[in-house]
Specification:
By secondary structure, the protein is mainly alpha-helical. The chain contains 3 helices and no strands. The protein has one domain. The termini are far apart.
């Protein structure tokens, strides 16, 4: 039987790992979408820009990754020991799907 402290440590570790994976993937998805949506970029203007879009993409990626990590942490801490893996997979999938839907709806409505 796993103690409560071990379960908490495992949940924190899993949430941290999920955050570390989801944040860069979210940023990459936003950057790819922006790149495919826009025209060619003049490399000489990159350093002259304010990088505001970078900060927004980073903030959105961190927010989404933190949300996924919190949901995974809650799923792992649930007292459903025999169904933990299934519940965790479903909560992560639901968080990712919900975030993707919100992102694409916002990108469609606010070009």
């Amino acid at each position: 039987m796993i103690s409560a402290e071990e379960r908490r440590r495992a949940a924190v570790s899993l949430a941290g790992l999920l955050f570390a994976v989801v944040a860069p993937l979210t940023y990459l998805a936003q950057r790819m979408y922006e790149r495919f949506r826009s025209a060619a970029i003049d490399p000489g203007l990159i350093l002259a820009s304010t990088h505001t879009s970078f900060y927004w993409r980073s903030a959105i990626a961190v927010w989404f990754a933190a949300t996924c990590a919190a949901i995974a942490y809650r799923g792992w801490r649930a007292d459903l020991a025999e169904k933990r893996g299934e519940m965790l997979a479903r909560t992560i999938a639901a968080a990712l799907a919900a975030g993707a839907v919100v992102f694409f709806v916002a990108a469609w409505l606010l070009p």
